[in-house]
Each structure stands twice: as C-alpha cells, then as structure tokens.
## 1
Amino acid sequence: MRNLFKLWLVVVLVGVFAVPTTAQTDGEIIITGAWTRATATMPEAEATEPPMTDDMGSMDMGTMSGVDVSGTYMIIENVTGTGLSLVAASAEVAGIVEIHETQIDDAGVMRMNAISGLEIPAGGQAVLEPGGFHVMLMDLQRDLFPGEALNVTLTFELLDDGGAATGETLDLIIGSLVRQEPPEANDIAIITPWARPTVTDADMGEMAPEATEMPMADMGEMGGEMPMAGGVSGVYMEILNRGADDRLIAAATDVAGVVEIHETQIDDAGVMRMNPIIGIDLPSRQIVTLQPGGLHVMLMDLRRDLIPGQALRLTLTFESGRELTVAVPVYDRLMMGMGQ
C-alpha cells in the first residue's frame, strides 16, 4: 500500500488541512489566488471559442486547440517543515491534467513542457501563473464559463532533507474559480473550505431517488451529525486575516435560498442547537476556525443536491466593505478523515 496523505483544502485564496497517515508535516500549505482560465465568455451555444491572446499564457497556439485546453494558476506557500513537490493533478472537467512549465525554445517560440514535479522547499513558495508554471487542463469535457467553481485535486510528494523524493504523497482537493483575468491580491485567506454533501458517492452510483430525501440532521459535533440532505448543508473553513481587524457579516451562494452565519451551542437542557449570529470577529494576524460543532456558514433552502466532487461559489461579505468570492469543494472531510 502506498503511503498516502489525504490533505484537503480549497481555494480562491485558499489553504490546506492535513491528515497524515505515516509521516508528519508541521504547519500548513496556504494557497492563494487560485483561478482557472475561462474558455467561453457566456453560457450560450455560440460561445465555444476562448479569447486567443498572448496571455492564454503558456499555450503553443500552433499545436493546441483553445477549445480543449485551459490552465489553473495559484500561489502555493509551504509553511510546513518539509519540502514538497507538486507532481500531479486531476479534474473531472479535463481528460488529461499535467504540471507544465512555459519555456522559450531556440527559435524564440513559447512552448509548454510537462515536468515531473515543481519543488517547493519548506518555508518557500511557488507561483503558478500564465507564461510560467501552471496546471494544464487538456481534453476539456465542456466549456469553462466565468464564475464557475471547479474541483481540482493536487498531488504533492514529500521530500527528504536532501530534496529527494520519499514516495509519500499528499492529495489535496481544492476549489478554483473560472475567470478571464487573475484575481486581485487580498489579505484575507480562506483556508480549507468545504461543504457537506447532501448525497453520497454510493447514492449517486445507484441513482436512488430517495438519496435526495434523507432526514435533516443537527450540524453539531461529529457524534451527532449525519450527512446533510434535501434542504440544508454547512460550509466550514479557516479564515486567516493578514490585514487590519475585520468581521465576517454575511455570505451568499446561488445554490441556497437562505444563507446565514451560525454558531452551534448547547442549551440549558443539554441539546445542541444552531443559532444565527450577526457576525464573526476576525482579529488581525489570526486564524478563526469555522467547523462542525462551532461557527459555520449555514446553507438552507437548497436549490439542488450538493454532490461530492463538485464545487460551489460562496461570496463572503466583511464589515470593512470588501467581498470575497471563493470556490468551495463539496465533500465530507470528517468522514474522509475517519477513513485514514
């Protein structure tokens, strides 16, 4: 059995959470500015050709069809005590996903070359951007429209003190927003966001109608939780505020009719209940955790099932007036952790 670390995180200004099985890393991986290049400008039949500009970055236009390819970009900060190498990636929207580097050949032509890994030393960072390193999505199964949220898995390999591969890997589930241009820099980082599914992988495989009609359960501690189904779900994350003090005051998504900020509390009778709150304080230079059994974003009146492997858009509003839209992957991180 290969040594496998499951590390779940997602972005659009995202970080990561690790559940190691056979080795240890210290600290976190923080991913910011994750985005994927749009291949169409509007969800219409005629919008099949992507904008063909030099900033498509990295593409050798003489050999690639713009319709079938795109790129995913981000900044990866390795604040663990272990060197890492990004060695692979996957996404349901693409038949082939590779780690690429854009280089200029002897004839002065910009070409993309697949690489075996992108090393990120402990305490270092890697910038994935058009015209440089990037995650290449090929054999796209459909057009990618601005505003979509994608689910992408990154695979990292741990390195020893000498920089050699150990054979131990980290699988990271991240979210990436489809955009036409890179996002603006932001001093608020959303780390490890995830949304609880309302159906399971088994339900989807059996195509059982009753899979979307499971009874709603309390969103409290793990011992009292069941997978959310039908009308409600929850979104969890860590919020790192690198700027001045702020407060999260609202959230919104098109998959839910009602979105509220909640806190799970124990009442006088010892019953765990969720109560809406007016906001969550975000002190400067600190991380605030939203998790089952505590603070969380509550999704109610769901307009569709939340299926593992998908992602949703969530817009967060802060007291300072800023808004931040993030891609949130759908999966049950707690159940996946139990399987380690």
Note: Residues 1-26, 44-66, 207-229 have pLDDT under 50 and may be disordered.
## 2
Amino acid sequence: MDLQEAICPKCGGPSPTGDICGKCRASDIEWFTCDGRVRLVRCPNCNSMRDNNGWNDCERSREDLEYEAAISAIHLFQDVQKPEISIKLEENSKNRTFAHISITGLLYNEPREGACTVEILWQFDSCDRCSRYHGNYWQGVVQLRADGRKATPEEQERAKRIAYQAEEELQLQGDRLSFVTRMEEGREGLDIIVGTQTLGEKISRDITRRMGGKFSLHPTLVGEKEGKKLFRITYAVRLPRYTKGDIIFIRNTYGEILGAEGKTISYLDLASGIPRTVPESTQSRYVGSVRDGIPMLVIYQDGEMLGLMNEETGKTEEVPVQSWRTIVSGERVHIIRDEDRVLVV
C-alpha cells in the first residue's frame, strides 16, 4: 500500500476519500427486508380484489397476483443498485402460498445477496357488489309500459339489451354497484330492477332516446340511515302509442309506422310512398297492424285495381292499389280493413 493512499478508519483498507470504505458501510446496513406475511382478499364469485381503497374488478390470474404480492413484500435500502429478484412460488393449499425469494444487488459497489420467504395468505370474502346482488338488493325499478297498449315482445327484448348495455358502460367507468338485479315480465310490460338510481335513470334515458316516449320519476321513502332519508325510485317509462308496423290514419291519409325516436314518429305515407316524420302529438287514429293483416294472393292487376283471393276461403275481391307500388300476379300481400276501406300493406 502506498503511504500516501488514504485508508478506511474502520478496517484499515484503502479508501479513496479517507472515509469509511464501501465494504464497511455495506456491512453495517440492513440492505433489504421482507414482510413475513402478505394477505390477499378475493371475491369467490366475481374474482374482484380488495385493497386499502376497497373492492376493484380484477381479471388477473392467481399466479400474477402472488408474484405482485411477493414483490410488494420486499423493501430495499435506498442506495442499492442493479437489484435482481428471483421468486419461486410454492402453493401449499388453496388459502396459502409460500414465495421463496432470492435477491442480489450492489451496495456502494459491493455485491450483496440474500434470501427470504414470504407467506401469502388468501382470504375469500363476498365483495360489495356480489353481497348486494345475491341479497336481491335494489334501489329502483324501471317500469317499461306503452301508451294505450301493451309493450310488444320485440320492444321488451330491445329494452333488455339497452339495460344490459347501460350496466356495462357504468361498470367500465368504475361504478361497480350499478347492476341489474333482475327483470320481470308482466301483463303490461317489463320491470327492470336495478342496484343504483344512477343506473335506473341511465336506462330510462337510453330507452326513451332510442325507442321514443318519455319517463317520469316517482320516489318512495323507505327509511333513514345516519340521519339521511333513503328512497327507492320508480322510473315510469312510457313508449309511444304506436310501434313499427302499425297502420294509422293521420293528416287525412293512411300511414305505416316506421319507428319512433324522441318526441317524433316516422311513417310511410301509403298514398304516396313517401316517408314522413311528424311530432308525436300530431292527431291520429290507430287502424291496425301489418302483423294482423289478412294474407291474400294476387290473381290479377287491372290498372289501379287488384284481384285478390283469400286462399283459406277461396273468396275473391277487387281492391284499389297505390300507384307507387308494383305488384305482380302470384305475389302475396296483406290487407287491413278500416270500415269500408281496404288497404294493401
């Protein structure tokens, strides 16, 4: 050793600065620690995980979560450089896994290595959402009805799809408790029971926006919690009085309903063949529906008159046909009667 070279005052070895050398500094420091035990809480129904902030949806595998838990149990001294961590998982039972951990790194340019074992405990609890769902919890009900008629099966199925889509959208936004508790079909329509009022209002707005009609809210006081009044809300959704395929008398002519959206209805003018859109409040009269039309066979066409035959009875009759329609012999059509008028639809 050069007499001019600085030495470590602790071990007498070389030290570039004359301070305690890296080897001595490293030997005096607990360069890593491991938590002996980590607890993971998972919902057995939907696989959600609970942390300090509550429940969260989770689609990760058990193995990924255990690796992450093992990493979180390791605490390195702040000056450790180039750490390398190796983890071997040993599943002891459904509720217990041991993570065998090996660690290497540099501390003040001195190589360090060590090992520890972390016990990972699994706890299975029903999450907030599943507890409410399986407990039949609800905060509101969307009552789907139609104005002056029964909601059709097609309308009810479409409303179901809209409700589940609304549920999915809210849950993707992090609203875990917005779920459809159940659906009940009744004589007049569909009841959609929901877990939150947020979902109930969204379903109501989405249905009326896409299917027409309107809705109103009717709260019912059900109790108090911590001095705050608790309400359940009935969302009364009323679909338009007409549905696709209905035949109406409107503006001195006949029309076939094409659909409804918002506060308007669209129909095909059967006299001209032109689609029209009018406010829902426009005065009109229900005549029938193409679903209830009488099937007839076209046996001839003479100008604007059709010769039709009822294939069940063999009875024939002549009816006027709209000039914009092209109908050929042998074609099958349906007719709707309105007093002394016969409409080909």
Note: Helices lie at 22-27, 62-72, 128-134, 153-172, 197-211.
